[in-house]
């Protein structure tokens, strides 16, 4: 495939945008080469500036559950835009999407909309601190909760890809309030709590980790966290930016049967527009301004275009709950096909999958936490990534990311993908 125009655009971009991108992982630094510039996308496909068609397994990092440019979402945005794009005043549609979200997700009474997953997680932690009147938080190595200061401590996703899981610019004071635990290691969490009794406001976790590749929670792990939180007056925050409205109507809480105290959402809840949200029981949410003392605000929060897109998306997911089964079946089909191709070619690997999230780790051992995720063979991943790209398949340009399956993918697309893996595996 030819990527001439993408490369030329990247050269221009680098003159005026740091690294040529507005979010680091897009720059292909982890895999080498120049990034692909997208011209448009429809359904399961991306069309780049060189005229190539790629089957997309990133899907804007998750939200395109129904595919790109999904007609009801596009129509809702266009109709809304004709009536004004931002008011900074209340609109009825905010209540409509809030009612729908609250009805779909277990254990939440109220929700507040923000503009990104980062904002959602940052605000959730502030709320947890304000509610419990404690300062420290526990996060897990390899989990990513956006780029707010408190979370850039052993963060996953782009942060680890670029070798800065602990970013300069985060003060020591902030860093010391974030306690770091090992994913899937309940004993470690217990130890941290015992050494910081009465000091921990919340445990924030991706209930299914997606930012060190996909790592599902071990049996009993989330239940164990729930019990620890209950006995120590700690709030459990589920970061459902990736899992929300994707693993089930009610997200990971529903699929895994564990309740969180605060839940955060990202891009899905805006149908791919810039939206995030955090939600909890009324008793917790009522601590937010203007009802309570915990301050949180945003000019563009509840923006009408984003709310229209989100409402169109959630309505469809709500009415059509067999989508989640269908997505899981497609993902299982892909898993089996990829595994067969890799085994036949003697490629050491581990595939993690849950619902419509899947990742291929080129690792010898099971991948259950950040340590085991980093033992994967990056050289093999790089070759795999470029091989897939040359065969028209676009996966995330880093070994520390998850593939997101969209309902727009047909079984023919999945077969094309599996055939590409078969071809690429012979070169690894
Ligand atoms: N939490 C999780 C689990 C994420 O995966 C991400 C980003 N992919 C974020 C938070 C941050 O979201 P955003 O990029 O919208 O700020």
UniProtKB/TrEMBL annotation:
<keyword id="KW-0663">Pyridoxal phosphate</keyword>
<keyword id="KW-0627">Porphyrin biosynthesis</keyword>
<dbReference type="GO" id="GO:0005737">
    <property type="term" value="C:cytoplasm"/>
</dbReference>
<comment type="pathway">
    <text>Porphyrin-containing compound metabolism; protoporphyrin-IX biosynthesis; 5-aminolevulinate from L-glutamyl-tRNA(Glu): step 2/2.</text>
</comment>
<protein>
    <recommendedName>
        <fullName>Glutamate-1-semialdehyde 2,1-aminomutase</fullName>
        <ecNumber>5.4.3.8</ecNumber>
    </recommendedName>
</protein>
<dbReference type="InterPro" id="IPR015422">
    <property type="entry name" value="PyrdxlP-dep_Trfase_small"/>
</dbReference>
<comment type="similarity">
    <text>Belongs to the class-III pyridoxal-phosphate-dependent aminotransferase family. HemL subfamily.</text>
</comment>
<dbReference type="InterPro" id="IPR005814">
    <property type="entry name" value="Aminotrans_3"/>
</dbReference>
<dbReference type="GO" id="GO:0006782">
    <property type="term" value="P:protoporphyrinogen IX biosynthetic process"/>
</dbReference>
<keyword id="KW-0032">Aminotransferase</keyword>
<dbReference type="GO" id="GO:0008483">
    <property type="term" value="F:transaminase activity"/>
</dbReference>
<dbReference type="InterPro" id="IPR015421">
    <property type="entry name" value="PyrdxlP-dep_Trfase_major"/>
</dbReference>
<keyword id="KW-0413">Isomerase</keyword>
<dbReference type="GO" id="GO:0030170">
    <property type="term" value="F:pyridoxal phosphate binding"/>
</dbReference>
<feature type="modified residue" description="N6-(pyridoxal phosphate)lysine">
    <location>
        <position position="267"/>
    </location>
</feature>
<keyword id="KW-0963">Cytoplasm</keyword>
<dbReference type="InterPro" id="IPR015424">
    <property type="entry name" value="PyrdxlP-dep_Trfase"/>
</dbReference>
<dbReference type="GO" id="GO:0042286">
    <property type="term" value="F:glutamate-1-semialdehyde 2,1-aminomutase activity"/>
</dbReference>
<dbReference type="InterPro" id="IPR004639">
    <property type="entry name" value="4pyrrol_synth_GluAld_NH2Trfase"/>
</dbReference>
<dbReference type="Pfam" id="PF00202">
    <property type="entry name" value="Aminotran_3"/>
</dbReference>
<dbReference type="InterPro" id="IPR049704">
    <property type="entry name" value="Aminotrans_3_PPA_site"/>
</dbReference>
<comment type="subunit">
    <text>Homodimer.</text>
</comment>
<keyword id="KW-0808">Transferase</keyword>
């Amino acid at each position: 495939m030819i990527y001439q125009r993408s490369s030329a655009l990247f050269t221009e971009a680098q003159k005026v945008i740091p690294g040529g991108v507005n979010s680091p992982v897009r720059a292909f630094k982890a895999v080498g080469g120049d990034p692909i510039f997208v011209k448009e996308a429809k359904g399961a496909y991306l069309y780049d500036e060189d005229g190539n068609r790629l089957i997309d397994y990133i899907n804007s990092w998750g939200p395109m559950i129904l595919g790109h440019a999904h007609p009801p979402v596009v129509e809702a945005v266009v109709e809304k835009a004709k009536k004004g794009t931002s008011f900074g005043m209340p609109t009825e549609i905010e209540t409509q999407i809030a009612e729908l979200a609250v009805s779909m997700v277990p254990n939440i009474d109220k929700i507040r909309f923000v503009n990104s997953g980062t904002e959602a997680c940052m605000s959730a932690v502030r709320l947890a601190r304000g509610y419990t009147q404690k300062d420290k938080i526990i996060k897990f190595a390899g989990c990513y909760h956006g780029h707010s200061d408190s979370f850039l401590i052993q963060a996953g996703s782009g942060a680890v890809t670029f070798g800065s899981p602990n970013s300069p610019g985060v003060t020591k004071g902030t860093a010391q309030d974030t306690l770091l635990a090992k994913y899937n290691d309940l004993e470690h969490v217990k130890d941290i709590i015992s050494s910081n009794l009465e000091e921990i406001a919340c445990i924030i976790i991706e209930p299914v980790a997606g930012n060190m590749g996909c790592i599902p929670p071990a049996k009993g792990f989330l239940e164990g966290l729930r019990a620890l939180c209950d006995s120590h007056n700690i709030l459990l925050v589920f970061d459902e930016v990736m899992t929300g409205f994707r693993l089930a109507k009610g997200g990971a809480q529903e699929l895994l049967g564990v309740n969180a105290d605060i839940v955060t959402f990202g891009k899905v809840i805006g149908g791919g527009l810039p939206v995030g949200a955090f939600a909890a029981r009324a008793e917790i949410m009522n601590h937010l301004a203007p009802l309570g003392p915990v301050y949180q605000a945003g000019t563009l929060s509840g923006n009408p275009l984003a709310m229209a897109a989100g409402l169109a998306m959630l309505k469809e997911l709500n009415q059509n709950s067999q989508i989640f089964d269908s997505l899981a079946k497609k993902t299982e089909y892909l898993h089996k096909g990829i595994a067969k191709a890799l085994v036949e070619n003697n490629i050491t690997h581990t595939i993690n999958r849950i619902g419509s999230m899947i990742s291929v780790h080129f690792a010898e051992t099971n991948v259950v936490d950040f340590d085991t995720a980093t033992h994967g063979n990056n050289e093999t991943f790089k070759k795999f990534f470029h091989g897939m790209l040359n065969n028209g398949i676009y996966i995330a340009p880093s070994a520390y990311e998850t593939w997101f399956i969209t309902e727009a993918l047909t079984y023919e697309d999945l077969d094309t993908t599996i055939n590409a893996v078969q071809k690429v595996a012979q070169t690894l």
